[in-house]
Amino acid sequence: MTRRSLSKREAELVLAWEWEKRRLITIGDVMKRLRCSNGCARKMAHTLRKKGWIEPLTKGHYLLVGAERGPKGVPEMNPYIVARILPKSYFFAYRFACAHHGLLTQIPRVIHVAVRRPKQPMEIKNVRFQFVELSGKRFFGYQESAIMGEKVRVSDMERSILDALDRPDLVGGIEAGAQVLFHAGKKMEMTKVLDYLQRFDDSALSRRFACLCELLRITLPSELKSYFRGQVKKNPALLGSPKRWGTKGRLDKRWNIILNVPKEYLLGEVRIG
Predict the structure, then answer these.
(1) Whole-angstrom Cα distance, residue 119 to residue 131?
(2) What is the chain's Cα-based Rg?
(3) Residues 7-37: tens digit of each pLDDT
(4) Per residue in 50-72, is it b (16+ CB within 10 Å) or e — as a string?
């Protein structure tokens, strides 16, 4: 990469953004600052990009590569800058959230983000972001966290556990969901788990949780046990995905759930003391 340069007008623009401590720049910002047309702003953005002062994130959005990035403009490597261009209602979820809370070991290359409305996938800094649409009823259970210096919303531990059992396909399978639950162990707040399960209002999820807690020897409070007993329905639920594991297996009569996943696969590397 060649050394960067700026004309007087370009320097005034970049210095103004640095003074304002801006990182994310839009075409609208260029138009406002220069009081110019959309076409003029896009030409300026093209020039600044060519000279190494901004880099594209998505259409119409750029990341400022300020003077602190050196004379050659070493690019920013933080993919979580994406949080700045996400809808107001979002949170990082599923496998990423489980890894964030120490319940799984590997940070995934594909990060699933919960949103309220459909959104096309995007790729930033070699990380792919895919979006999972949730109803307003299920949009709860997240917190703000700092990741590589960026403030992002991530599902909290209890929500991450339930998501792993509700959508095991997004965490690595039901065996990964069992691992998540095992590592959560005594760390999860059972009152919050109960509250979240009631808000999910999903009998199959509740039975899956109860069954796995028994297999993993996780002690449940009486209030949660009572709730689970009320969640047992006439039709049996499946422990694992029927597409992957089929629909046959031993019936756990206590929870009316079909254990269609072989125990050795389900527990994997989990070592129950």
Answers:
(1) 6
(2) 24
(3) 999 999 999 999 998 888 999 999 999 999 9
(4) ebbbbbebeeebbbbbbeeeeee
99 CB-side CA count, 13 A: 16
What totals of helices (H) and strands (E) does the chain contain, helices first?
A: 11, 12
Element (H, E) at 60: none
Q: Where are the domains of the chain?
A: 8-76, 81-267
Residues 6+ apart with CB under 8 A from 206: 197, 200, 227, 228, 231
Q: Give the CATH number of domain 8-76.
A: 1.10.10.10
Residue 237 CA neighbour count, 13 Å, CB half: 21
- Report pTM: 0.85
Report how far residue 130's alpha carbon sits from residue 120's, in angstroms, rounded to the nearest whole number.
Answer: 7
Specify whether the CB–CB gap between 237 and 204 falls below 8 A.
yes
Q: What's the one-letter identity of residue 158?
A: E
153-172: per-residue pLDDT in tens? Answer: 999 999 999 999 999 999 99
Decide: helix, strand or coil at residue 128.
strand
Per-residue pLDDT at 70 exceeds 80: no
Tokens at 110, concatenated: 């594909």
Q: Is 228 exposed, middle or buried (0-12, 13-18, 19+ CB in 10 A)?
A: buried
